[in-house]
């Protein structure tokens, strides 16, 4: 029971005085005793005897020594007489001043310090309660303490374990006490062999505070090779045979001893099938019993086994094979396949087991090795003394010189070492964490004392060691040994000298025998002799000319002082420095460099002199080298000798000086124009200091370009990048590493290296102003670029006439804005300003010389590349279903497409269609030209929209267009889904009647919605901006007004006073319409150099025609007028079905209607240019002229509208050679009019027959009267009626409205003599006979009649006045109706009073001017008046014709 114990009655009991035993009822043989004593040595005996009663006295049967309390011990005969390898101990081999104390002791059966084995603690003696158990409890806080009287002499104290069966202990890890006088500087590991202790291994130079490893690196076990075969087979040499017999088979005596037990759990069959002619591969034991398990009795240990599978003709299934519980599978082997597998297994019970129970058919051979085979273990060791503890942050073992496959990561492995300090365990040397560290157990390690090893399952070659040692010198080994296990011990493979810490080192054969490019150095040369040692504060080698990609390597030097090693020049600390062993130093005697594991190309080297070189020997240095600069030449080891590379580094104190090998870069890495710099042409009196500097691609210092800073030198705290950090304050500056006295002329420079070729046009620089310490600014600065000759070439020198400013920004322009946009070039290109994920794809592209994108420039198209057979020709083939693709995945400004012109020109517009897939498109592009060697930035366009036609206009390059020659409207509000404009019209009058026609302008459009659609007077078509959403002024549409003559491209100034527009794409869907329109619209006018806003209109209703009056835009009063009727009229006209005119004509001919044919001709002085410059407009005008003639003739001949046909309309220009005043000298339009006269028999197919004239002769006479006298009253009314109808016919066409407005006052009409074609008999009428006149009255009877006649006359006058008033009102209503037709949504003008109408035009000058300005109104009110009957009849006819027209209207 817990807590229960027996305690002897004696104190300080003498030997044999205290005893305890048991009495049995019968004689019993006791072979084992379990004993547990208290954990205090005062209460426990270190030796006990087992006695038996022999009948008369107690006799000693067994004596057990070296007992320990606190643990239950199993005492058998083997405890009394341990067999070989059953008991192990660690003892002190040096004296210990006080009692020896051990905190922890662990024993392992594996040579790699693996497979921990557990036994019963044993010791010679313990002090007090510090029993041996405390050294095996896993706690550093408790410890075993040796008994006896101090000092503890060497070999007099020991601690160990007793095992139940033999164990092959090969390693012990010991943690002693850190207290002074309680630890031994050397220990030994011993085992019981032949009844005595045998030393296995010894460890010296132990240090406190660490875990020490005692490793024997040998084994007491033996190698055993078993061949599984038939009983008739020949056993291979050095093998023992297994023929499938049961366990208990005895092998003959051998290295393992007199006998060897092994065998199967059941009887199996051994086979031999000759195929491989190999005694091992041709034999096997087939595991064909229910549970076939093979066992081998051996020593408990870690073993390294090789299993061979083969069974010719049968094949082998191995997926279920197990060795000591580990999978031994090689899968399924074919009939004649053989294979071997190496495994590491731990045999803790002294029985090695192979389990073939499941999915394991057979086994051919099993080889058991007590120690690892060759090259299965590798280790590194310190090859030189280490002052402190050797520290390794990380180590890697690689099978090739390339060091690209770390075996410690890719293979199953075990790490072990010579020991480790507290908290710095062995696994930390290869845990992938550079911040953790393994530290050796020894502190002040002699060569070979400290080592770290790795063990693998099988053979692993190592050709490279990667090592990261501590950066501290006293914790580094400058010589590292690489050793391999050769199956019996360690052998040296390679010695790596000059190993340093603080960085990764790759140690391989190239370290010992470096080929070309593995070592670089900076050497004092050019005949320079230093008066003292060379001191280098910092040095660096870089893989790029930017001096940013530092090449890490191992510091090497041509001799160094112990206090200033070569590593000090590469530690990033300017306060530490390397000092050469020579001093003074001759030419090429002092040097410092780096070793690299792989060949590198150093493109930049830098160095800074240490303080000692710069100050202590300043005067002598000044005398020895020019300017106090020490020239250091860059050299490379070529495998046999040092060879020069690149320019010298002008090393100086206080900062790094650079040598960049720009001339050695290939063209693809450094093209002309890819590097730019500014050079101090004038000297400074203080180190040159630049607070900020920027480079721009535009002459206006816009479009800044960013590159990588490069400079000739720099101060440690003021590197070159500070001049490009966007902060021009004094504290963030670049300072050249010049002496405090200043920089000599032409000695320093700073600039940028760009990823792509750049053409800079402007530089802004901010130099520091003068201080008491001197002037750090250069008054003359030269701009240079890297040229095609692989050297720097001058672009421009600034400050020769006026000093470059300091203390403020100085703007240095290469080209002015005017020069940039007016410079012609042969080559132009469009460059992607973004990186493109896949390919930049363009379906179509063209370059134009005009801003309207109308005059394409012909040339040879080129591109940056072509992907997947999408050639550049596909972008200029006129097809949008084919595309050019750039090279794959181009970076920013890498993809471009351009044209080479035969003649120098200026591109003012680029029109192209990008791909709709964003992975094939860019959001920004640059237009560039190449007038000389460099590509010149012209303009950047952003954003661009995938899948939309883009019009990239360079308005800055347009210098020929005067003010007012271009107008446009733009969105003022954001438009979520892109601005849509259905119709847009520009007028030069406030009533929007005099339209101006131009060439459409826009930033682009969506497919099928080009800008021309906004000027075609159709509701069904529209222009849509490429943007969506569109921000303010991003969506715009306008016109460029050119000469109206054919081929006339000269700009034309237009004074727009009114704009009509219809916006929105939603139709009846208001939300969709609102999403594609802007309620605030701006009208902009070209002022000769840019578009300038002339009006902003609010409340622009979407979905309706609106008029924007520019005269009212400023005040906002009546600036926006909505025309609600126009949209419906256009929709009706577009939706009306077409009429078959010829079919209607044929009906009249078949019915034999009489007809009158006449040619009508209208004359004007000249047609407006907008009419004669476009055939489509001429066609529309001819149709409108015919429609007006048809309506006018129908009214005056009193015929239905459908009875009239207008044919052969022809517009004519004045005849050049005609006499002035003749009709030939006038412009004209003529048509042939045919009138089919109605009948009274009902065959006219019209209603209200009573209204129509059925007398053919009457119709003929009416037309004949007008033809014979074109200036009679009837003819004048005919002209007035025609003008009204012409305005009605053209009201939906803004261009035609403008034409009619201009020529209306000039129209003269003439009818040719009509032709009558009679097919039926004339209609006869009966007239009443005339009334005979009354007889003469007598004179005397005349008086009353006279009075009566006077009364009648007065009454008649009154009746006439009343009649006039009625007729006037009817006519006024008719005129109002006509006004509403011709002027929708406009108020009818008020008629002036009688005195205004009759007196003012004769006597008032103001009224003269009004009459002159409104000739139509003057003519309307000033002409002769129709009769009431005529007016009434005309009104009825007009009403009937409108009803007929409504049913027969056709789409124009």
Key descriptive features of the protein:
1452 residues, six-stranded antiparallel sheet, elongated, alpha+beta
Polypeptide structure, described:
The chain is of the alpha+beta class and 1452 residues long. The protein has 20 helices and 87 strands. A hairpin with a 4-residue loop joins β47 and β48. The radius of gyration is 57 Å and the shape is elongated.
Low-confidence stretches: 614-626, 1245-1249, 1323-1339, 1405-1432, 1446-1452
Number of strands: 87
Mean pLDDT: 85
User: Main sheet?
Assistant: 6 strands, antiparallel
> If you compute it from the alpha carbons, what radius of gyration comes out, rounded to the nearest whole angstrom?
57 Å
Distance between the termini: 120 Å
Which shape, going by the Cα principal axes? elongated
SS strand fraction: 25-35%
Fraction in helix: 10-25%
- Give the number of helices: 20
Q: What structural class results from the helix and strand content?
A: alpha+beta
Topology, element by element:
Blueprint: E1 33-36, E2 48-53, E3 58-64, E4 72-75, H1 77-80, E5 87-92, E6 101-108, E7 116-117, E8 120-123, E9 144-145, E10 158-162, E11 171-176, E12 187-193, E13 196-203, E14 210-215, E15 224-228, E16 240-242, E17 249-250, E18 261-264, E19 269-272, E20 283-286, E21 293-297, E22 301-310, E23 316-317, E24 322-323, E25 326-327, E26 332-333, E27 338-347, E28 351-355, E29 362-363, E30 365-369, E31 377-382, E32 391-398, H2 407-410, E33 413-417, E34 419-421, E35 438-439, E36 451-456, E37 464-469, E38 479-485, E39 490-497, E40 504-507, H3 509-512, E41 519-524, E42 535-542, E43 554-557, E44 578-579, E45 591-595, E46 604-609, H4 611-616, H5 618-624, E47 630-637, E48 642-644, E49 649-651, E50 656-660, E51 675-680, E52 689-696, E53 704-705, E54 708-711, E55 713-714, E56 734-735, E57 749-753, E58 762-767, E59 781-786, E60 792-798, E61 809-813, H6 817-822, E62 825-832, E63 841-848, E64 859-863, E65 884-885, E66 896-905, E67 909-914, E68 925-930, E69 936-941, E70 949-953, E71 966-971, E72 980-987, E73 995-996, E74 999-1001, ...
Parallel strand pairs: 15-16
Antiparallel strand pairs: 1-4, 2-3, 5-10, 5-12, 6-7, 6-9, 6-11, 8-10, 11-14, 12-13, 14-34, 15-30, 17-18, 18-21, 19-20, 20-29, 21-28, 22-27, 22-30, 23-26, 24-25, 24-28, 31-36, 31-38, 32-35, 32-37, 33-36, 37-40, 38-39, 41-45, 41-47, 42-44, 42-46, 43-45, 46-50, 47-48, 47-49, 50-55, 51-57, 51-59, ...
Helix pairs in contact: 11-13, 11-20, 15-20
């Amino acid at each position: 029971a817990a807590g229960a114990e027996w305690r002897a009655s004696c104190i300080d009991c003498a030997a044999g005085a205290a005893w305890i035993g048991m009495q049995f009822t019968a004689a019993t043989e006791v072979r084992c005793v379990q004993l547990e004593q208290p954990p205090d040595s005062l209460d426990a005996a270190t030796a006990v005897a087992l006695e038996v009663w022999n009948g008369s006295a107690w006799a000693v049967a067994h004596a057990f020594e070296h007992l320990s309390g606190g643990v239950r011990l199993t005492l058998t005969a083997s405890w009394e007489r341990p067999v070989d390898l059953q008991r192990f101990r660690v003892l002190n081999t040096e004296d210990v001043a006080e009692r020896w104390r051990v905190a922890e002791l662990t024993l392992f059966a594996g040579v790699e310090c693996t497979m921990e084995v557990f036994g019963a603690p044993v010791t010679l003696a313990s002090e007090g309660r510090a029993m041996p158990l405390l050294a095996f409890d896993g706690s550093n806080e408790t410890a075993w303490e040796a008994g006896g009287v101090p000092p503890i002499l060497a070999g007099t104290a020991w601690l160990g374990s007793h095992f139940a069966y033999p164990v092959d202990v090969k390693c012990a890890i010991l943690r002693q006490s850190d207290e002074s006088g309680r630890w031994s500087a050397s220990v030994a590991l011993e085992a019981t062999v032949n009844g005595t202790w045998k030393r296995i291994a010894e460890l010296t130079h132990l240090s406190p505070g660490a875990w020490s490893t005692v490793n024997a690196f040998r084994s007491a076990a033996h190698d055993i090779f078993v061949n599984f075969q038939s009983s008739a087979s020949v056993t291979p040499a050095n093998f023992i045979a297994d023929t499938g017999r049961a366990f208990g088979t005895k092998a003959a005596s051998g290295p393992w001893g007199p006998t060897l037990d092994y065998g199967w759990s059941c009887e199996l069959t051994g086979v031999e099938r000759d195929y491989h002619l190999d005694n091992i591969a041709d034999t096997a034991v087939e595991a064909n019993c229910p549970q076939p398990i093979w066992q081998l009795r051996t020593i408990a240990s870690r073993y390294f086994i090789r299993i061979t599978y083969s069974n010719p003709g049968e094949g082998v299934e191995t997926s279920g094979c197990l060795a000591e519980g580990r999978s031994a599978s090689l899968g399924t082997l074919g009939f004649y396949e053989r294979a071997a597998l190496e495994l590491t297994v731990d045999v803790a019970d002294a029985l090695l087991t192979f389990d073939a129970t499941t999915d394991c058919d057979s086994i051919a051979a099993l080889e058991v090795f007590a120690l690892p085979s060759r090259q299965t273990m590798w280790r590194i060791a310190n090859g030189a003394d280490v002052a402190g503890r050797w520290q390794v942050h990380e180590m890697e073992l690689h099978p090739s010189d390339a060091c690209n496959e770390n075996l410690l990561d890719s293979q199953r492995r075990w790490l072990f070492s010579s020991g480790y300090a507290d908290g710095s365990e062995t696994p930390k040397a290869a845990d992938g964490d550079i911040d953790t560290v393994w530290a050796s157990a020894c502190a002040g390690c002699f060569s070979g004392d400290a080592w770290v090893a790795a063990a693998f399952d099988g053979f692993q070659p190592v050709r490279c060691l990667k090592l990261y040692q501590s950066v501290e010198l006293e914790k580094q080994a400058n010589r590292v040994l690489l050793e391999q296990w050769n199956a019996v011990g360690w052998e040296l493979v390679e010695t790596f000298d000059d190993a340093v810490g603080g960085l990764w080192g790759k140690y391989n054969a190239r370290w010992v025998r470096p080929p070309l490019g593995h070592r670089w150095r900076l050497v004092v040369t050019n005949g320079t002799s230093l008066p003292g040692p060379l001191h280098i504060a910092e040095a660096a080698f870089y893989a790029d000319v930017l001096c940013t990609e530092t090449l890490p390597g191992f510091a090497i030097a041509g001799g160094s002082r112990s206090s200033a090693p070569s590593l000090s020049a590469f530690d990033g600390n300017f306060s530490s420095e390397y000092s050469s062993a020579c001093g003074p130093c001759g030419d090429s005697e002092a040097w410092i460099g780096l070793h690299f594991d792989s060949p590198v190309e150093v493109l930049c080297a830098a160095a800074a002199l240490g303080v000692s070189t710069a100050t202590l020997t300043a005067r002598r240095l000044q005398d020895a080298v020019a300017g106090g600069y020490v020239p250091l030449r860059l050299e490379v080891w070529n495998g046999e000798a040092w060879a020069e590379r690149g320019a010298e580094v002008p090393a100086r104190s206080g900062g790094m000086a650079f040598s960049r090998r720009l001339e050695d870069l290939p063209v693809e890495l450094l093209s002309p124009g890819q590097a730019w710099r500014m050079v101090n042409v004038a000297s400074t009196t203080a180190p040159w200091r630049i607070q900020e500097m920027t480079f721009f691609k535009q002459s206006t210092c816009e479009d800044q370009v960013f590159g990588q800073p490069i400079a000739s030198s720099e101060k440690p705290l003021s590197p070159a990048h500070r001049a490009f950090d966007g902060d021009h304050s004094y504290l963030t500056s670049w300072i050249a590493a010049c002496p405090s006295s200043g920089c000599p002329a032409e000695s320093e420079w700073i600039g940028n290296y760009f990823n792509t070729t750049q053409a800079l046009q402007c530089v802004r620089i901010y130099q520091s102003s003068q201080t008491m310490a001197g002037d750090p600014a250069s008054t003359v600065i030269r701009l240079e670029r890297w040229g095609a000759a692989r050297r720097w070439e001058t672009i421009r020198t600034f400050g020769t006439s006026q000093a470059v400013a300091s203390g403020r920004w100085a703007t240095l322009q290469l080209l002015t804005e005017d020069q940039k946009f007016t410079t012609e070039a042969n080559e132009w290109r469009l460059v992607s300003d973004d990186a493109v994920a896949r390919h930049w794809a363009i379906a179509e592209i063209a370059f134009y010389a005009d801003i309207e994108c109308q005059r394409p420039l012909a040339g040879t198209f080129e591109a940056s590349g072509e992907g997947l057979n999408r050639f550049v020709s596909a972008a200029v083939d006129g097809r949008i279903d084919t595309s050019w693709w750039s090279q794959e995945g181009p970076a920013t400004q890498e993809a471009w497409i351009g044209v080479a012109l035969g003649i120098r020109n200026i591109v003012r517009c680029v029109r192209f269609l990008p791909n709709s897939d964003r992975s094939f498109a860019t959001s920004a592009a640059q237009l560039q030209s190449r007038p000389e060697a460099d590509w010149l930035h012209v303009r950047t366009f952003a954003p661009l929209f995938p899948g939309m036609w883009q019009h990239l206009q360079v308005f800055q390059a347009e210098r020929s267009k005067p003010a007012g020659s271009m107008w446009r409207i733009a969105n003022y509000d954001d438009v979520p889904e892109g601005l849509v404009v259905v119709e847009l019209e520009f007028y030069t009058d406030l009533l929007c009647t005099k339209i101006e026609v131009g060439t459409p302008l826009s930033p682009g459009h969506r497919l099928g919605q080009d800008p021309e659609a906004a000027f075609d007077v159709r509701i069904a078509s529209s222009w849509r901006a490429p943007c969506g959403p569109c921000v303010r002024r991003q969506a715009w549409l306008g016109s460029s007004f050119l000469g109206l003559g054919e081929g006339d491209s000269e700009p034309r100034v237009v004074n727009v006073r009114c704009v009509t527009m219809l916006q929105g794409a939603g139709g009846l869907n208001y939300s969709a319409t609102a999403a594609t329109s802007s309620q605030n619209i701006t009208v902009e006018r070209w002022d000769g150099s840019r578009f300038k806003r002339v009006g902003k209109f609010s409340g622009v209703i979407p979905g309706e025609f609106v008029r924007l009056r520019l005269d009212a835009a400023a005040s906002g009063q009546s600036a926006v007028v909505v025309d609600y009727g126009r949209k419906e009229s256009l929709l009706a006209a577009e939706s009306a079905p077409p009429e078959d005119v010829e079919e209607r004509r044929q009906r009249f001919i078949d019915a034999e209607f009489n007809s009158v044919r006449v040619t009508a001709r209208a004359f004007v002085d000249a047609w407006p240019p907008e009419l004669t410059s476009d055939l489509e407009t001429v066609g529309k005008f001819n149709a409108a002229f015919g429609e007006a003639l048809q309506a006018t003739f129908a009214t005056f001949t009193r015929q239905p509208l459908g009875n009239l046909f207008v044919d052969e309309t022809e517009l004519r220009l004045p005849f050049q050679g005609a006499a002035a005043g003749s009709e030939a000298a006038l412009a004209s339009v003529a048509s042939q009019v045919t009138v089919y006269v109605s009948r009274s028999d009902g065959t006219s197919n019209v209603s209200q027959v009573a209204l129509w004239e059925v007398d053919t002769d009457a119709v003929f006479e009416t037309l004949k009267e007008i033809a014979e006298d074109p200036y009679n009253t009837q003819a004048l009314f005919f002209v007035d009626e025609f003008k009204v109808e012409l305005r009605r016919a053209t009201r939906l066409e803004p261009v035609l409205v403008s034409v009619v407005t201009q020529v209306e006052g000039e129209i003269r009409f003439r009818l040719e003599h009509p032709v009558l074609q009679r097919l039926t008999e004339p209609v006869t009428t009966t007239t009443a006979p005339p009334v005979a006149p009354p007889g003469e009255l007598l004179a005397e009877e005349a008086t009353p009649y006279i009075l009566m006649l006077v009364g009648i006359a007065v009454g008649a006058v009154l009746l006439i006045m009343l009649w006039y008033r009625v007729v006037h009102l009817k006519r006024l209503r008719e005129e109002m109706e006509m006004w509403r037709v011709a002027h929708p949504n406009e108020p009818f003008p008020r008629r002036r009073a009688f005195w205004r109408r009759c007196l003012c035009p004769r006597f008032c000058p103001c009224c003269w001017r009004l009459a002159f300005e409104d000739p139509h109104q003057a003519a309307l009110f000033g002409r002769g008046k129709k009769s009431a009957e005529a007016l009434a009849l005309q009104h009825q006819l007009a009403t009937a014709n409108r009803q007929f027209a409504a049913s027969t209207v056709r789409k124009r």
